[in-house]
Design a protein that fits this description.
Shape: rod-shaped
Radius of gyration: 37 Å
Helix content: over 70%
Number of strands: 0
Order of helices and strands: HH
Largest sheet: none
Structural class: mainly alpha
Number of domains: 1
Distance between the termini: 123 Å
Number of helices: 2
Strand content: under 5%
């Protein structure tokens, strides 16, 4: 009967060890899932920010084109003035 008890004790110890390892793996998987979710959210936020910055850049380029056009018109107007009229 002692051999059965020793075998049962060994089996229970191995089961408990296996159960601990499984719980550890589940903890690692949960942490990895949380990190993955956080990384996906950060990526989505970064993509949204890129889109917003691209919009701002497009607006700034349009504004720059407008300013360049206005300056060119002013330069043309100044160049067309008769120097005698300026004095």
């Amino acid at each position: 009967m002692q051999a059965t008890s020793s075998t049962d004790t060994d089996a229970l110890a191995r089961f408990n060890e296996l159960e601990g390892r499984i719980e550890s793996v589940l903890g690692v998987l949960a942490a990895a899932r949380d990190q993955k979710d956080a990384a996906e959210k950060a990526l989505a936020d970064a993509r949204d920010r890129i889109v917003a910055l691209q919009g701002e850049l497009d607006e700034m380029r349009a504004e720059r084109r407008e300013i360049v056009g206005r300056v060119e018109r002013l330069v043309g107007t100044i160049a067309a003035l008769d120097p005698k009229e300026v004095e």
